[in-house]
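Recall that a protein's primary structure is simply its ordered list of amino acids. Everything else, from secondary elements to tertiary packing, is in principle encoded there. The following example makes that idea concrete.
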Amino acid sequence: MNITRMRTIKGYVEEKRAADPNTSISLHFVRQLVLQKKVSYVKAGSKYLLNADAVDVYLAAGDTEGKPIQTGTIRKVAV
């Protein structure tokens, strides 16, 4: 039986810090991932419950939505 590891934002960050005290993952960073809908969550009252495994997969893959900024050429400016 596969049980989903649901954590609050704070619980997820505490779990990561317990595993790696030098982690750079912060409470603010994970909260922004949720608010920007980059990771799935379930709202339980006023708390957000994250699928910890899904967040780990997202962090391992990196942010693939970012578009590279075009540099070194003249760009058309909308007026």
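The longest strand covers residues 47-51. The mean pLDDT is 87.
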